[in-house]
Amino acid sequence: MGRSGSGKSTLVNLIGFLDTKFKGTYYFEDKLVEQYTDDDLSKIRNENVGFVFQNFGLIEKMTVGQNVELPLLYAGVSHQEKTRLVLESLEKVGLADFVNQSVKLLSGGQRQRVAIARAIVKSPKFIIADEPTGALDSKTSLEIMQLFTELNQLSGVTIILVTHDANLMSYCTREIKVADGEVIM
Ligand SMILES: Nc1ncnc2c1ncn2[C@@H]1O[C@H](COP(=O)(O)OP(=O)(O)OP(=O)(O)O)[C@@H](O)[C@H]1O
């Protein structure tokens, strides 16, 4: 948590290997991130991190299933396995019946569930969720937080959440405050 402009997105983009220009040290699995090549980091990101953003980041002209399948496109997974993984992810977010629907017809909360299904389809070690409830009403926001809690408890995936909303803190196990580009506690 932190005020607007304090550096929250910058920090989680570093943690998620989206941004690789930084001062300081970041170890991932006992190795300094600066020692990996860009190709290594793309692979590490692809295999370990799922991303969820405020504005969902779905491709409108695709179906729900096609959106969830995107991270698997270059994963060398058979068609049958892809179908199984997509359905399994959609089941976890309660949208298995929507697999063939266009995303255009979905509500904001449903869209974020699709984005979460896409984020978990490759069983990442952690999910970066940058203001995932920023575009949702308060009831839907709590439903999304409930879903994150279930995923954390059932699949053991860590969720790194950026939020302005102090009401969401009760779902979190650790609070990290950021101010003026620094972690302050
Ligand atoms: N540790 C840092 N060192 C230098 N510059 C930083 C640091 N952290 C953030 N910045 C700069 O501060 C600005 C705001 O950062 P950022 O967008 O990450 O903030 P934010 O907390 O996510 O804001 P918002 O809540 O409005 O999205 C950016 O221009 C970023 O480059």
Overview of this structure, please?
Helix 5 (108-120) runs parallel beside helix 6. The protein has a three-stranded parallel beta sheet, sandwiched between helices. Strands 1-2 form a two-stranded antiparallel ribbon. It has one domain (8-183): 3-Layer(aba) Sandwich (Rossmann fold), CATH 3.40.50. The model has no long low-confidence stretch (mean pLDDT 95). The protein is built from six helices and seven strands. The chain has helices spanning 8-15, 38-48, 64-69, 79-92, 108-120, 138-155; strands at residues 27-28, 31-32, 49-53, 126-130, 158-162, 178-179, 182-183. With 185 residues, it is an alpha/beta fold. The structure holds adenosine-5'-triphosphate.
Features:
185 residues; alpha/beta; Rossmann fold; 3-stranded parallel beta sheet; two-stranded antiparallel sheet; 7 strands; 38% helix; 12% strand; globular; binds adenosine-5'-triphosphate
